[in-house]
């Protein structure tokens, strides 16, 4: 059963997680509509009280710019792919910690960075577009099998 409170926890915890990872300001407004299909994506499976997939994608060269601002060097090729996976792992790991502190059990799998031509066969619950201070936008989309009831 879909729990609005649990969805609120998931969205707010995602934003809190991003604040810990991204070194500059951003703005966000959660959407319930489906995200646009973008080929380069980071997929992280979610396990625990709710099961599904977190997909992080971008609209341009956002990961490259973000990597450059965090590490002071331009990331390309395999280094960029590695950064994308590690960024996803940092955000999702922090998200799992925050969600657990709010009374829900959540674990994650290692990230998969790949060219994708579709989304998982799960229900799309929300997308959190995050507009970064230095330009560009990251989308954090949750596709879940079910949404747990919060305690």
Report on the structure:
The structure is a single chain. Helix 1 (about 5-20) packs across helix 3 (about 75-100). The chain is globular, with a radius of gyration of 15 Å. It has helices at about 5-20, 60-70, 75-100; strands at about 25-30, 40-50, 50-60, 105-110, 110-115, 125-130, 135-145. Strands 1, 2, 3, 4, 5, 6 and 7 form a seven-stranded antiparallel sheet that branches. The chain is an alpha+beta fold and about 150 residues long. The protein has a single domain (about 5-145), classed as CheC-like (Chemotaxis protein chec). The protein starts with a helix and ends in a 7-residue tail after the last strand.
Quick structural overview:
The protein contains 3 helices and 7 strands, in the order H-E-E-E-H-H-E-E-E-E. It is α+β, with helices and mostly antiparallel strands. The protein has a single domain, classed as CheC-like (Chemotaxis protein chec), CATH 3.40.1550.10.
Strand-helix topology:
Elements: H1 4-21, E1 26-28, E2 40-48, E3 52-58, H2 62-71, H3 77-101, E4 106-108, E5 112-115, E6 123-132, E7 137-144
